[in-house]
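Changelog note: in this version the structure field was regenerated for every chain. One regenerated record is shown below for reference.
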Amino acid sequence: MQLENEAGFREIEGGACAAAGFAANGCHCGLNPDPGKNDLGVLYSERICNVAAVFTTNKVQAAPVLVTKSHLKQTGGKAKAVIANSKYANACTADGEEIAEKMCELAAQSLGILPQETLVASTGVIGQRLPIQPIEAHIDRLTADLSAKNHEKMVQAIMTTDTRQKEAAVEFELNGKKCRLGGMAKGSGMIHPNMATTLNFVTTDAAVSVPMLQKALDEVVKVTYNCLSVDGDTSTNDMLCVLANGAAGNEEVTAEGEAFETFKKALYLTLLKLTKMLAADGEGASKLLECSCKGAPDLDTAIAVAKSVIRSPLVKSAMFGRDANCGRILCAAGYADASFDVHKVDVELASKKGAVLVCKNGLGLEFCEEQAADILSSDEIFINLDLNQGDASAKAWGCDLTYDYVKINADYRS
């Protein structure tokens, strides 16, 4: 899955360690009974970073979310490291915040930084106590082997039901200085707007002020991660952090303008790729779904309609069954929190095998069912809606709903 072709931006390797001055590592510390599965990871910057972040909107928030928020408030949006684990979510337990703070203290002591300069994240089973002993026993070995080459080990450490690693990075220029921005993502299930939706750590060597970094993230998340839905469940642990260490040497971006727009485009391209990777790796998924809504009266309407269609269990099930059921799509669009004239809506289903118009002016059309089923047999399906009521457009991403989704989640704790 390639980044969209954009002049002035080049896709590169390295993920969250593509940017200068960042290193990472991951290891198996014993949280996961599988000795071949990394379950603890660290991401580190040699220089202090400006940080922007977005978090889960779930009212039940895991201890790492609360502690990370607290640390960013204490430092004014500064950090040098992230420590993360899988297997245990460290959510809904009596000593969760104490354990999360201890993780930061252990990482900070081993790295020679302050605990409040450390962010913390966890993913896994909710409601089970996270043991600190395995982390304490392995932290020094973990930090001793920090390297830009070990970014994949960190990615592996935050994976749970993921079936593939998710990384992206791009190179671009700000004020004549070469800059890089890259990230890693974790997520397969319990993914639903609004942000965050997974664990995500993005880094850049561009110099960007905290306010402008947060502004860029907020604007980009709205049209990427917040338009992603796998199963309608918003996790307790979700966060997306962007760390900017300024190692590229560009003049710091402190206001809107050309440099800010270039940086925001780099962030958009990277988060867009990660969003699509997350959607394609939904639990049990066999197809990536992309819903486009154009001809909307405004952006919020376009987003609402696209998201409503992409998160519908009936639409997702129909796509799995190769059923070109326009009624399910219209139904999902119709209960979106948006105002539009349903009698002007057209719906097209498409893939690399072709396209078929299934609805015109809000009414179902006759079409060849065999041709439609063949189109929907591809592993990437495009659900295209035209509201014919304006110039705004938006996209949302998700996956089909298969038998394996139930199997995976029925056995999740075992």
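Spot check on this record: The longest strand covers residues 40-55. Residues 7 and 172 are 10 Å apart (CA to CA).
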